[in-house]
From TrEMBL:
Keywords: Magnesium, Manganese, Metal-binding, NAD, Oxidoreductase. It comes from Cladosporium halotolerans. This is D-malate dehydrogenase (decarboxylating). Belongs to the isocitrate and isopropylmalate dehydrogenases family. One of its GO terms (molecular function) is NAD binding.
Length: 358
């Protein structure tokens, strides 16, 4: 049988993005060669804050159409010290997520074998979550305005948009995710005591959709109390769904509780599969360590595993996760995980494990 071909668009972009994406591509190439069952071709897009500073645009004319031709997008990180963050985020990342209707942002977190959680009592297995973040509207809908700039009475509004259609679809996706996991529990997180319109609608829709999933246990939390529960009772949580802003914050906390922001992956999914989905490590461009060769590539490796899973290559995805954990158990880890290894050393070690695994 011929290996199944997939076409991947790579957008390494800024800061440590190019370092971790190069590592991710090396691991993916090793994996596809070893497995023999699939083949990946990579197309590089040099869209970044550098191109923005030269041309005034992150994505050139026709850029989105050219992305559509790929099966998936592998993204690094966007953000530069001399470009305001709201321009870089909206210019590149959201400029792909929103038109491609990648409405489900999925963030698995767990304590990898061989690594330690900053939580004194948590061992691998005690923290094993999937956070589903609404990724198309809410607090990041882009509605609002500013008037009377610079005056004492300057006014700004940032309007959250919650639509039934968007909340229902992400809720259904979250229930399906919960159903596919051993504990079959979904915690929906809102702030419906203080925000009495959009958040109350979220709560209502959660309970409506729950009726379609009688086998999934439903659990409700307010977002402030949720931060305490994540720290104090990590074992009590499994799948979590929340708004764009709330889940953005909770998922950074989740990554840190699992050991480092450098290990966690993100999938921006269009569950209808009309558009390619986009996969990225959760971290940003990390200016403080850019160019030093010490960025943790594990977040990108795990991201690559999530991408393969979405493409239907479950076996390769499982094997890759196994290889990552073996390397962590050997303590070949970067500084953020308490080790001394470089990006390149971790990458070579994972590639070696892959060759052994087949
Ligand atoms: P950050 O994630 O870039 O860095 C936070 C801290 O974590 C830094 O100390 C950094 O060194 C460390 N860190 C991050 N990734 C690491 C890795 N792979 N290995 C080891 N250590 C790692 O977040 P920050 O500093 O808030 O943002 C920097 C820039 O990145 C900003 O311009 C921001 O807008 C952008 N950003 C972009 C994101 C994206 O493209 N999806 C996500 C988050 C931030
Ligand atoms: Mg974030």
């Amino acid at each position: 049988q011929h290996p199944k071909p997939y076409s991947i668009a790579c957008i390494p972009a800024d800061g440590i993005g190019p370092e971790v994406i190069a590592a991710g591509v090396q691991v993916l190439k090793t994996l596809s060669a070893a497995s023999g069952s699939f083949q990946l071709s990579f197309t590089d897009y040099d869209w970044s804050s550098e191109t923005y500073k030269k041309t005034g645009q992150y994505i050139p004319a026709g850029g989105l159409d050219s992305l559509k031709a790929h099966d998936a997008i592998l993204f690094g990180a966007v953000g530069a010290p001399d470009v305001p963050d709201h321009l870089s985020l909206w210019g590149l990342r959201l400029a792909i997520c929103q038109p491609f209707q990648q409405y489900a942002n999925v963030r698995p977190t767990r304590i990898l074998r061989g690594t330690e959680s900053p939580l004194r009592k948590a061992a691998p297995g005690d923290l094993d979550w999937v956070i589903v973040r609404e990724n198309s509207e809410g607090e990041y809908a882009g509605q609002g305005g500013r008037s009377h700039r610079g005056r004492a009475w300057e006014t700004a509004t940032e309007v959250s948009i919650f639509t039934r259609a968007a909340v229902e679809r992400v809720m259904r996706f979250a229930f399906e995710t919960a159903r596919g996991r051993p504990r079959k529990t979904l915690t929906y997180v809102t702030k419906s005591n203080a925000q009495r319109n959009g958040m109350v609608m979220w709560d209502e829709i959660a309970l409506e959709v729950a009726r379609e999933f009688p086998d999934v246990k439903v659990d409700k939390m307010l977002v402030d109390a949720m931060t305490c529960r994540m720290v104090l009772q990590p074992q009590s949580l499994d799948t979590i769904v929340a708004t764009n802003l709330h889940a953005d914050i909770l998922s950074d906390l989740a990554a840190a509780l699992a050991g480092s922001i450098g290990i966690a992956p993100t999938s921006n999914l269009d569950p209808t599969r009309e558009h390619p989905s986009m996969f990225e490590p959760i971290h940003g461009s990390a200016f403080d360590i850019t160019g030093k060769g010490v960025a943790n590539p594990v977040g990108t490796f795990w991201t690559a595993a999530e991408m393969l899973r979405w493409l239907g290559e479950e076996e390769a995805a499982d094997k890759l996760m196994e290889c990552i954990e073996k390397v962590c158990e050997k303590k070949i880890v970067t500084r953020d995980l308490g080790g001394e290894a470089t990006t390149k050393q971790v990458t070579s070690a994972v590639c070696e494990e892959i060759k052994q695994a087949y």
